[in-house]
Design goal:
The complex is a heterodimer.
Chain A (H helix, E strand, L loop, with lengths): L16 H8 L4 E5 L5 E2 L14 E5 L3 E10 L13 E8 L4 E6 L12 E8 L5 E7 L1
Antiparallel strand pairs in A: 1-2, 1-3, 4-5, 4-7, 5-6, 7-8
Chain B lengths: L7 E8 L10 H16 L8 E5 L9 H9 L5 E5 L5 H14 L5 E9 H5 L1 H9 L14 H16 L3 H15 L13 H6 L2 E3 L2 E2 L8 E10 H4 L7 E10 L15 H12 L8 E4 L4 H10 L8 H4 L18 H4 L9 H11 L13 E8 L4 E8 L4
Helix pairs in contact in B: 7-11
The structure holds zinc ion.
The site of zinc ion has 8 residues of chain A, from loops.
């Protein structure tokens, strides 16, 4: 069979570049509305709560709790085969927004809903560092 | 607002052979399904003035519906292609019903097919579907499609105590029904232990908690209730339809355990003037076992959180309180991709026509069909009946 695709390296857009620029410095940045204080992820042109266009980039505490998780045994593509078993999770940031991630740095069997986790970064290229989470 | 209740009927319904069908291309499957549905309705292609298709992964065209019209040499005045997964079938029937009720067109052919298995190979099909995830904020984490659904299953198990055995009971029921359907791709009965002992794909989902990768097509013909009496077979009437749309990416979902099936179902019941207790047979979207449990709750067949207990003890099997997926569903009958839910419609039509032989639900008068697309993103419910009133 022909070679399957490599890992999908994120390609920043005009809208997401500040996020990936911050990740490169190993900081997790999300948007906050200057009018109503609402935090949101992923980045958008407007605040989804009050439709204000005064959305600003702020540094997240990088703390989160696990909302759900799964340990993957059949990789999505061969590019992920070496990582099996790996944990795909959804986490809720302390600021409120939720995001998909991997839980790393612990036995997959130890991951549980409600677990406290902290952001960590996986350097994929010189430009792209992917935020993941590890136990506090 | 004028209601669509009883205004539109299905007057033709057919499936192609399904499963492993290497001798037909994707386009040929669309056209074969269409031809069989026309024969079932007892009409010719020149009686069709509306055409809707789903997109094909294997043989995509920018104007797919126009391509099928061109291939068949039909010249509709209403022609569209819709490309949004498992919820598509019912949502486009909603559109078709509106077009018929408002006189935009009279007789609509809906044909859906693909050959994910023979046209792509299983690995390539799975990889193609994985592009469903957000390119920057989901796919870098390597979630396979079963992984997305595993997140829902895990959350449901944590919140409501749902068990792997209860998930497995869904797959067992669907396979039992497929064993009675000569057309189904997988007909060997399975047990709960078989499901639990099958390969772990994305915990808690095992191989047998997942749907198939298949070839196949299905088609239906819809027209107004007045015209419906002139066709070969007894019409099946659309009594209620409703949609709910909550997100595109599951990482943006407001809830992992309650879906927009709730709104879709409530809207369909309200139009039909019926409730869950009136339903004789339900064909529910079953790409993965936890989806059925969440749908049973959100569609009101049991209280929220009780879905796991509801599927136990044969309650969803033939002879039970609410037989589901009597053809075998996506886990045992076939799952060629976008067309998936259309097989639920053709099966519901056959049930209401008493054409199902050993898998016939006795005295089936009212059928409920639910489709969902994306990762519990887009939902459409439909209630079909033997009578218009
Ligand atoms: Zn705001």
């Amino acid at each position: 069979m022909a070679a399957l695709s490599p890992k999908p390296i994120p390609v920043p857009t005009r809208e997401t570049k500040p996020y990936w620029d911050a990740c490169k410095k190993h900081e997790l940045h999300i948007q906050q509305c200057a009018d109503c204080g609402h935090h949101q992820f992923y980045p958008r042109l407007y605040c989804t709560k009050c439709m204000s266009d005064k959305v600003e980039w702020v540094k997240s505490l990088g703390r989160a709790t696990v909302l759900s998780h799964t340990t993957v045994y059949r990789p999505v593509t061969q590019a992920f085969a070496a990582d099996v078993p790996y944990v795909v999770a959804m986490v809720t940031l302390a600021e409120g927004p939720q995001m998909m991630t991997n839980i790393v740095g612990c036995d997959p069997e130890k991951v549980h809903i409600g677990m406290a986790v902290q952001v960590t970064f996986d350097d994929w290229t010189e430009e792209i560092s992917v935020p993941k989470f590890k136990p506090v | 607002m004028e209601s669509l209740r009883g205004k539109v009927a299905i007057v033709g319904a057919a499936d192609t052979e399904v499963g492993v069908v290497p001798h037909l291309s994707a386009t040929q499957l669309y056209v074969k399904g269409a031809k069989l549905a026309l024969e079932d309705a007892g009409i010719t292609k020149d009686d069709i003035d509306g055409l809707i298709t789903c997109a094909s992964w294997v043989e995509p065209y920018m104007y797919h519906a126009e391509m099928i019209a061109e291939y068949m040499q039909i010249f509709p005045r209403y022609c569209l292609n819709v490309a949004t997964g498992g919820g598509t079938t019912l949502a486009i029937m909603h559109h078709a019903a509106s077009a018929i009720a408002t006189g935009v067109c009279n007789t609509v052919l809906i044909t859906m097919a693909d050959n994910m298995l023979s046209g792509l190979s299983r690995d390539r099909a799975i990889e193609a579907m994985s592009t469903a995830g957000h390119a920057q904020f989901e796919r870098p984490y390597g979630p396979p499609i079963p992984g997305f659904y595993a997140l829902l299953a895990q959350a449901h198990m944590h919140k409501y105590g749902t068990t792997s055995e209860q998930l497995a009971a869904v797959a067992v029921a669907c396979r039992k029904h497929a064993s009675l359907n000569p057309a189904a791709q997988m007909r060997q009965p399975i047990t709960i232990d078989d499901v639990l002992n099958s390969k772990l794909i994305a915990q808690p989902l095992h191989l047998l908690d997942c749907s198939l990768v298949s070839d196949g097509g299905a088609a239906i013909i819809m027209t107004s209730a007045e015209r419906a009496k002139d066709f070969k077979k007894k019409p099946v009437y659309m009594l209620g339809v409703g949609e709910g749309h909550s997100h595109e990416h599951v990482s943006q979902a407001q809830s992992l355990t309650t879906s927009a099936a709730k709104e879709a179902g409530e809207r369909a019941y309200a139009m039909a003037g019926l409730g869950p207790k009136d339903i004789d047979v339900a064909e529910l979207y079953d790409c993965f076992t936890p989806v059925v449990i969440i749908e049973l709750e959100d569609l009101g067949f049991c209280p929220k959180g009780e879905g796991g207990r509801f599927v136990e003890g044969g309650r969803i099997e033939l002879g039970g309180e609410l037989p589901i997926n009597t053809h075998g569903g996506l886990m045992s009958h076939c799952h060629p991709g976008h067309p998936g839910s259309l097989f639920s419609i053709t099966e519901a039509v056959r049930q209401l026509r008493d054409e199902c032989g050993p898998r016939q639900v006795a005295d089936a008068e009212i059928a409920f069909v639910h489709g969902q697309g994306g990762i519990m993103s887009t939902h459409c419910s439909m209630i079909l009946g033997k009578e218009a009133n």
